[in-house]
Design brief:
Layout: E1 11-15, H1 20-31, E2 35-40, H2 43-55, E3 59-64, H3 73-80, E4 89-92, H4 107-135, E5 138-143, H5 156-176, E6 181-188, H6 197-200, H7 203-211, H8 225-232, E7 243-246
Parallel strand pairs: 1-2, 1-4, 2-3, 4-5, 5-6, 6-7
Helix pairs in contact: 1-8, 3-4, 4-5
Protein name: Gluconate 5-dehydrogenase
Organism: Halomonas heilongjiangensis
Family: Belongs to the short-chain dehydrogenases/reductases (SDR) family.
Amino acid sequence: MHPRFDLDGRVALVTGGSSGLGRAMAEALAGAGARVVVAARRREALEESVAAMAAEGGQAAALVADLAAPEALEDIACRAAEPFGPVTILVNAAGVNLRQPIEEVDLASWQLTLQLHLGTPFFLSRALVPGMRDAGYGRILNLASLQSQRAFPNSAPYGAGKGGIVQLTRAMAEAWSRHGINVNAIAPGFFPTELTAPVFEDPASAAVLAERTAIGRNGTLADIAGPTVFLASPAAGYVTGQTLYVDGGFTAK
């Protein structure tokens, strides 16, 4: 691997790293040499993620945590350093889409969705920034979405959170990049994950979405690896405050 993309010696925390895009991003970082802590609620799924990375020669550890609990985030930041040392790469991939019609969105659903997509990334990042500043190196990757700029049915809270994360990414970059901490977002198109299962369970719906891309297909989990490693690496040293759409050209058409 080109040394500018080498993550050897870096420690990464990936929230939502037990499944879907979070797990794929964790595996990509481990494959580039980072020691990876994956955080989520489900212990069994986390252990499967850790085992998969270990089977490929990576170093990984599980952190069972409720990322939707605001009062737990400082503790999560501290616990994340226990397996391998201070975290210098953070991937905020934990999320939820409850898919409620807009008239049926209740306060609890709204608060959960906005906490996971805005509150947790902000406060967890802020808790880890002092260590990144001390290390002289930090990379924070947030997860945006096609819904950062487009509306989809039955997803008002999700869309609000994903729209907000683009601006939050800019604000975090403005505050912390001068300390060597770059903050960017990845906005995935349609990938086969738990959140998009209702779409991919219907081959006709999946085919329609594939046709809306410039490339002519939906994403595979392997497609997220390169952008993740790039934005986490020294190669992205002059890239900050940006949202990279990894969507096969969906938003270009």
